[in-house]
């Protein structure tokens, strides 16, 4: 829903619910996928957009998404169990009623300028928080027993607090464009922690999420040649021109004791590219 308050101001409000049930193959045979029954997501959005002249606009948007789904049996559903070992691992339900819920909420600010000639582009910043929680009954993990009932909210794998995106394009001539793009993210959480030996197993006693900030600067140039019925574009681009290392998470080791080891590799290195594009 959009409400135009003034000639240059627009207010937008939105709300929606999405629900996903298991695929047909998950109901076939004796493989009952109790876990995905059902998945529910509620979305809410409110935005204010202010125009400055014909080419420039400022948009402020707040968003909230709340998800919930089951990891084990849902009360009132099938009481029979699939035959052990006959179903893929991803379709083996947990034996009890276990649920997970998560949310993602934040604000986004975007300043944009649109122009056929000279300078155009946008600057966007997002401040967000994504958290997840498991509740109702304990979930058995592979490393040591976990005895939590109603675990507290913790950062989900999609949690990135700060994100910045800048794009600019300048038309030097009608057929020659220069553009640049800068991306920054404060990083997604990587599970780590400290383990101690309890009897013959190891239990995690502390969670220490790591974050690897990401930043990249790209440069590009486009040259067009227009003909009567078609157009050809020659472009050259350099990705990550500063050659920022940008750590990329690979895996975390299962420790015998002490601190878990996190393996990383370099992300996209400096990468020059060139090519031709034909339009008919």
What can be said about the biggest beta sheet? 12 strands, antiparallel
Computed structural class:
mainly beta
- C-alpha termini separation: 38 Å
Poorly predicted runs? 28-36, 75-85, 89-93, 137-149
Provide a count of the helices.
0
Helix content percent band: under 10%
Q: Quick one: overall form?
A: extended
Fraction of residues in β-strands: over 45%
Q: Taking Cα atoms only, what radius of gyration do you get, to the nearest Å? A: 25 Å
SSE pattern, N- to C-terminal: EEEEEEEEEEEEEEEEEEE
How many domains? The number is 2
**Average pLDDT, all residues:** 78
Count of beta strands: 19
Q: How are the elements arranged and paired?
A:
Blueprint: E1 2-6, E2 9-20, E3 39-52, E4 56-70, E5 99-113, E6 118-135, E7 154-155, E8 162-173, E9 176-185, E10 189-190, E11 193-198, E12 201-207, E13 210-211, E14 214-226, E15 231-239, E16 247-252, E17 258-259, E18 262-266, E19 271-279
Antiparallel strand pairs: 1-2, 2-3, 3-4, 4-5, 5-6, 6-7, 6-8, 8-9, 9-14, 10-13, 11-12, 11-17, 14-15, 15-19, 16-18
